[in-house]
Amino acid sequence: MRVGRQQSFAPHRRGRFSITRELYHGEIWCPRTENQSWLARRAGTVYFTGNSYVCCPHRTVFEGRGLHHLPAANGSGLNAGHYAVLGLVGNSGLVEPPDGILHGILDAVQYVKDYGRAGKEIKGHRDGYSTDCPGEPLYAWVKRGAPRPGGDNGTPEPPAAPPFPGRLLKYPPVMRGPDVRAWQGQMKKRGYTLDVDGAYGAESRNVCLRFQREQNVPADGIVGPVTWRLSWEAPLT
Fold first, then answer.
1. What is the pLDDT of residues 164-178, one digit of tens each?
2. Fold type of domain 175-233
3. CATH class given for the domain over 1-158
4. What is the spatial distance between Cα 190 and Cα 54, in angstroms, rounded to a whole number?
5. Which long-range contacts (CB under 8 A, 24 or more apart) does 69-75 make?
């Protein structure tokens, strides 16, 4: 996502998010990802992104190169005139950007307008550079003018998926618990046929495998953080 810079500055409405500084010496990660290394190119690296800001599905904005620093993500000749804001979607798994990512992108855009002398122009990565990024769904949103989901409402929305329970749901052996029941109930709401009995057995594993294949994520029959989140947040098909 390219956000154009402007040569003159006029006041804008302030961005609707606050910045907190947190010391962390590992690779950059999102607490709901499976491998905790979405942004890290390798463990221990300092240079982790050429983007100005990075937005995850939970409306969290990570600072990359930040304000008034030259990004390295837009392509030759485009970095000097634009900031770079990355939305964490891909060509498999999370493809359709949820509202949290869209809100986060717009929060970052408003911030660079308020404090970084950015102008009104918002472009996709592929505008002026040969790439599939930012993907068809996110690019279509940019072409529509990047509207804020639900209208211009800055109130953060809670994540659609409940927090990951902290253990992998898999079979064999049969696993039991309220987390299993919650996942089974959600899959039943999505139209799958299974008993909501709180026991993760062969039937639940088969439903999980089918769902993972439909979402184009690794099909292992295990409900991990990615499968758990997609069970609530993936669009119904």
1. 899 999 999 999 999
2. Muramoyl-pentapeptide Carboxypeptidase; domain 1 (1.10.101)
3. alpha beta
4. 31
5. 73/49, 73/125, 74/2, 74/125, 74/128, 74/129, 75/125, 75/128, 75/129, 75/131
